Amino acid sequence: MSNELHDLLGKGWKKQPFIKRAWLRWSIYAGFVAYLVAAFATIEVNWARVYEGLDRGAAFVMAFTRPDFVSRAGDIWTGMAESIVMTVAASVVGIAISIPIGLGAARNIAPLPVYLICRGIVAISRALQEIIVAILLVAIFGFGPLAGFLTLSFATIGFLSKLLAEDIESMDRAQAEAIRASGARWMQWINYGVQPQVMPRLIGLSMYRLDINFRESAILGLVGAGGIGATLNTAFDRYEYDTAAAILILIIVIVMALEYLSGVIRARVQ
Amino acid sequence: MPVLEKGDTQIWRRRTQGQALTHWAAWLIGTAVFVYCWQQISEATTWFFVWDAPRIAGDIWTRATPPRWEYIAQLGRPIWDTLNIATLGTLMALVMAVPVAFLAARNTTPSKLFIRPVALLIIVSTRSINSLIWALLLIAIIGPGVFAGVIAIAIRSIGFCAKLLYEAIEEIDHAQVEAITATGASRWQVMAYGIVPQILPAFAGIAVFRWDINIRESTVLGLVGAGGIGLQLQSSLNVLAWPQVSLILLVILAFVVLSEWVSAKVRGAII
C-alpha cells in the first residue's frame, strides 16, 4: 500500500472546494459579500408602494385566466401583423446581407483587409443594443415600421455573420481543397466546396434569429419603431391588464410555435 | 443520381425534376411573402422623411459632437445602479432557476407527467417576453425604480438559465450518480454528491454568460423608468440634449465592452 493512501486511511473525506487556491477563494467570497452589502444599501425600495401594488399584481395574474382578445381586437391585429411583417422582412434582408459579410469575416477565405472590415462591422452591430439603434433610427427616419425593420436587419447582421464566419473557419479543408483542385472558379468553390458544409447550421441559425427578431420586434414599438409594443405599452398605461395579458399570451404562443418549427426544420436539415 | 440525357451524353444534375420543382416553388413563395411584407412596410412609411434622412443624420451628428464630457460626473450613480440591476437580477434568477431546472430535467424531475410540463411552461413564458416588457409591467405594479429593474431582469433570466441548466443536467454521466446511490445515499445526498459536482462548471458558465447579457439589457431598462443609466438617456433624449446622449452612449458602450471582457476572463478561468 502506497504511503499516500496509508495517510488517508481512517480520516474523514472532505469535498473538494470549487476554487483550489484558498486565498483567492476567500478574497472572492469576501469581495462578493462586500459588494452585496453595498448594493443592497443603495437600492431604495418603497415597501409601502410595493404593498399597495400587490393588488394590481394579483389583478394582472388573474387577467391571464381571462384574457381579453376581443375589445381591442383591431389594435392587437394591426400591431401583430406589423410585428410579423417587420420580422420576416428584416430576417430576409439581414440574412442576405450577413452571408457576404460572414464570408468576409472568415479568416480562411477572406484576405486580411476584407477580414478586418467585416469583423469591424460585426463588432459594431453586436455592441449596440437593438433598442438604442431603434431610438437613433426613429430620430433619423421618423416613426413607423421602417425604423424597426432597419434595426432588426442591423442586429441580424452582427449575430449571423459572426456565427457563420466561425462555422466557415472550422470547416473541413479537404472538401474545399478537392473542389479547387477540379479547377473551380472562386464562386464555384464557395458554392460547391464551402456552402454545403455550412448550410445546415446556417439554416438552423436563421430560424433561431427569426425567433429572436420576433421577440425583439415586440419591444421596438416602445420607442416608436412599429409593431405590437406600442399597443402593449398603451394597454399597460391604461391598466387594461386583460388586453395586455392577451397580447403576452399571443407573443408566447407565436414564440413557442416558431421554436417548434425551427426544431423540426433543424432536425430535417442536420 | 439525377442525370439528364442529352443525345448520348449524360449530364450530372444536383436535383431530380420533382426536387427542382419544389425547390423553385419554395423560392417563389418565399419571395412573394417578402415582397408582400416589404409593401406593407413601404405603405406605412412616410418616404419624404426617408429621403430627408441623410440631412437629418448629419444634423444630429453635428449636434451630438463633441460629447458633453462634464456630464460624466453625474453618470457614476446610474452606472452603479445598472451594475446592481444586472448582478442582483442574475443572482435572484439563478436562485429561482435551479429548482425549476431540476424539475424540468428528465432524469431528476419527480413527475414527468405533471411537474415537468409546468416547469417547461415557466421556462418558455419567462424566456419569450423581453425584460423591457417585464419592466413595464412591474413598474405598473410596484412603481418605478431600481427594484422593478432587478425583478424584471430576474424574471427574464429564469427561463434562459433554467433551460441551459436542465440541458446540462440531462447530459450528466449516470455512472457517478449510480455509484453514489450504491453507497446508500439518500435522494438529497445523491443530488449533492452525484449531480451537483457534475453541473457546477456549466452552472458557473451560465451565470457569467447571463450576467453579461443582463448588463446589456439593464442599460436600457431606464427607458421605461426601471432605473439605471437608461433613465439619464431617456431624460436627455426628451430635452434633445444630443451632446449628453452621445456621451451616455459612449459610456454604455465602454461598460458593455468591459463586462464582455470580464465575463470572457471568468469563463476562461472556469473552463
Automatic annotation (TrEMBL), chain A:
The keyword Cell membrane applies. It is found in: Cell membrane. Its main location: membrane. Coiled coil: none annotated. This is Phosphonate transport system permease protein. Residues 80-262 form the ABC transmembrane type-1 domain. Belongs to the binding-protein-dependent transport system permease family. It is a multi-pass membrane protein. PROSITE patterns: ABC_TM1. Keywords: Cell membrane, Membrane, Transmembrane, Transmembrane helix, Transport. InterPro entries: MetI-like (IPR000515), MetI-like_sf (IPR035906), PhnE/PtxC (IPR005769). It comes from Rhodovulum iodosum. The chain crosses the membrane at residues 23-43, 84-104, 242-261.
UniProtKB/TrEMBL annotation, chain B:
It is found in: Cell membrane. InterPro entries: MetI-like, MetI-like_sf, PhnE/PtxC. Coiled coil: none annotated. It holds the Pfam family BPD_transp_1. The chain crosses the membrane at residues 21-41, 85-105, 190-211, 241-262. Residues 79-263 form the ABC transmembrane type-1 domain. This is Phosphonate transport system permease protein. Keywords: Cell membrane, Membrane, Transmembrane, Transmembrane helix, Transport. Belongs to the binding-protein-dependent transport system permease family. It comes from Rhodovulum iodosum. It comes from the Bacteria. It is a multi-pass membrane protein. SUPFAM superfamilies: MetI-like. CDD domains: TM_PBP2.
